[in-house]
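Let's practice the habit of predicting before peeking. Look at the sequence and jot down your guess about where helices and strands might fall. Then scroll down.
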Amino acid sequence: LHRVDRRQRQMCIRDSYSILLAQQLDELNTLSIGSTGTAIDFSEDTDDLTPSRTVGVGAGWEHRLTETSTALFDVGARQFDADDLVNTQSHTLDLLLSLSHRRTSRHTFGASIGVTAVRTETDGTETDEDLSLVGGASLDYLFKNGTVGVDFSQSVEPSAEGELQSFSRLTSALSYDVNNHERLNLFAALSRRTPLGGIGDTYDFYTVGANYGIDVADSVEMTFGYSFQGNNDSAAGAATGHQVLLSLGKSFDLIP
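Done guessing? Here is the structure:
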């Protein structure tokens, strides 16, 4: 439920899917392919919020450098369509190199760097191109029944305004294993949203939330979640939101 200004409320419906297939080639190398998709809709028409669809495919190669270090190279492509008056359509090419190192049995460091190239068309004729630096860094600590960590990321994602924009996030998270079949996750994040190319207004906001995962069957997990998004900007157009999440995931072996 999003409050667009002091007088207007909107229900945002976000549907998404994620599929990942991985094949271990040998003790050092693993290949993967996958697909993701997101649909964003709203309960009422408004000039401030725009429904959109995003579909992507990708592939990855993971290579174990040492007993404690791993490298991962990902390549992907996405198509973004906005239901606006100018028929905005964007295509992206995503390249990302990630490194992970387990310093001790409890400490893990990670870093990634890459680029996202975006080509945007409006009304099928006007085009605009952008190249953005993406990546991040993470630090995780493993304790007896869970993990606590902090993560910084830079990415290009669709926004509620019907545009691909640059997002910078600083996130802290706590994951706690209640028992062998249930998990509790708590998180808080500070984010900045910037138009591609750096032309336009930036928007700062924060998010806090929790989700609870349950193994409902063998290799099947159901997750319930809630998050709140707010900001310190009292101007009209600055939105706050409440999000309720329900997800279902299953893992299985195609080739035993």
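How did you do? The radius of gyration is 20 Å.
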